[in-house]
Design goal:
heterodimer; A: 369 residues; alpha/beta; abc type-2 transporter like fold; 5 strands; 66% helix; B: 353 residues; four-stranded mixed sheet; 67% helix
Amino acid sequence: MEGSLKYLLQKEFIQFRRNKFLPRLIFFFPVVVMLIAPIVANMDVKGVKVAFVDYDGSSLSGKMVSHLDASEYFKVALASPNYEKAYELLEDGKVDVIVTVPAHFEAGIIGGTKPKIKVDANGVNATKGMLGSRYVMASLAGTLQEAAAGMGMGLSSENNLSVCYFYNPTQDYRRFMAPGFILLLVMLVCCFIPALNLVLEKEKGTIEQINVTPVTTFEFTLSKLIPYWIIGLVVLTEGILTIGLIYGLWPAGSWGALYLAAVLFSLAMSGFGVAIAGGSDTMQQCIFVLFFFVMIFMLMSGLFTPVGSMPSWAQKVTYAFPPRHFIDILRSVYLKGTTMAELWVSYLALGILAVLFCSLSALTYKKRG
Amino acid sequence: MQIRLSSFVKKEILHIFRDKRTMLVAILIPVTLILLFGFTVSTDINNIDFAVCAPHRSEAVARGVDKLSFSPYFTFRGYIPQNDIDRTLRTGKASAVLVFAQDYAESGKMQVVVDGADVNAAATSAAYVGNVLQDSGAAQALFEMHVLYNPELRSSYNFIPGILGMILLLICTMMTSVSIVREKETGTMEVLLVSPVKPLYIIISKMVPYLILGAIDLALILVMARFVLGVPLSGGVGGIILVSLVYIVLSLALGLMVSNIAGSQIVALLLSAMVMMLPVLFFSGLLFPVENLPWVFRWISYVIPARWYIDAMRKMMIEGMALSGVFLEVGILVAEMLALIAASTKRFNDRLE
């Protein structure tokens, strides 16, 4: 029986090679995606568009607007004492934040009447609204303090809090997103292709031929999983090399830690894909169901939005998602240089899920007869 | 010809409605996903695990820690020694460490060390710490802040139009992407080719049944978005439905285009599910703001229909703009729809010769 697995694998590889589309997909798709992803995947809050409505017209408000304009974080889209116009621009999405300086503001500050600057933020994009308005306020407060110091008066400005960012000192969004896209690629390739491949055998009827041979369920399932396990590693390597060579983003931790995690992850995902395929009658059905899960995995595993932002029931559910553990490992190893020993919980979870999904895939494929 | 078209449509409808399982899957998936993501996906930072490093554990330090722990946004994970800061952050035990100065009681000096891996989360955490600990500070006294349209800053509002745009496009494309290839694979294509039916009629009849499915999906999604997720839909439901139907037809035509090009079902499905997912994700503004893109990619994004649809939906669902406010977006979607239908008819036509 030892021999039949070898022949089954040989068959899989020949079929793969003979296909015009698949080898190209696996070699070019990851490279193209990893070339584009770091440039595109940018949730940086920069270029916040500010409308500066200045009813004061003093030298102080003039300083504020020129400081805002000088910063790369802001773009002053409008500077005129016309709140209605600014509000219209905000409605059209041409402005994110409106700053309104009331009349006699400078005089009020000097006189100690404590006038207030009004800040309106467009909350449609919650992150941009919140961070953008905060940045604006920080910049304005800075200008005010500077001016107050110049005038020789203390503006109760005790800013004793300093912030220090670890692991990503330049606050570069690319460093954070790149590992997420490696995961996405490995997941898409390892999930969709083996599943479709199995349904194809079903639709073509070649699975009947396998059923009448003395090949065991176990061997057949393995022959469907092993090739994609190798392909998963190829895709990972392509991803690491592309962002390393082009963008200079190399993992801070060990490569071994990444590959071990990738092996477990691609096993889990291809097991999952084959299990779904086992339960589907047509390719279309299979891809619909896979799409459903891939979307869930993609949007709920912390790739793009923090897991901690979800309600607690959803956070608990994500422990059953292989990508959740894989992304933890990838990001920790890539950015923080965390070691395997420190991440053993994630590896263990990934291992358990791999075993679980692979056995599930062997179970759903039942030899009939 | 009128009769022929209707009989073709009937044939296609029978084909699809016979396969109850696939039909059910196609209807349930978008609805479930929207509901699920509407409840879960957000970028709000609700919980920050923090540890404290205080060389001199004075009463002032304890007061500061209490103040933070009392806030629903913070969870206290214990005191740690100075040389443990890196390990604590690296293993993810905490995402922020507060370092109080030796003379914190007098000077009030402190530092926040944040796990900066996630840029926006880090900036938000640091801002929260500042807010809680320095709530009587100068900055607060100077400003009066308002958030428009989304006063609670719930990011799910922003995600629902985006996710809707992505799911509708991909599901509809997947639905039609196999329809022509399947005819090729099963050999019934020959029959179609020798019949005197106009290619345009074949294309239309392939789309009608899926349009029905798409419309059912849309209706369920809108009802849920309004009544379960509380999205305002303030720009008028009629306009939203109209724009969405254009978008659905466009996606179905895109699927037919894929089906015309692809040589086999497996290729058609991989193209429509896997290869297409990424451009939509990258260039639609769903997660990554289009204005952050370098100009080359911004040009690419102008071709991606999801970008225009998501833009239009954000305006109509949340900002309350009427149909007239999204004239540009709708115009582009209609143009793309017509172009795709024409292109797939043309391609289909080429096969006849």
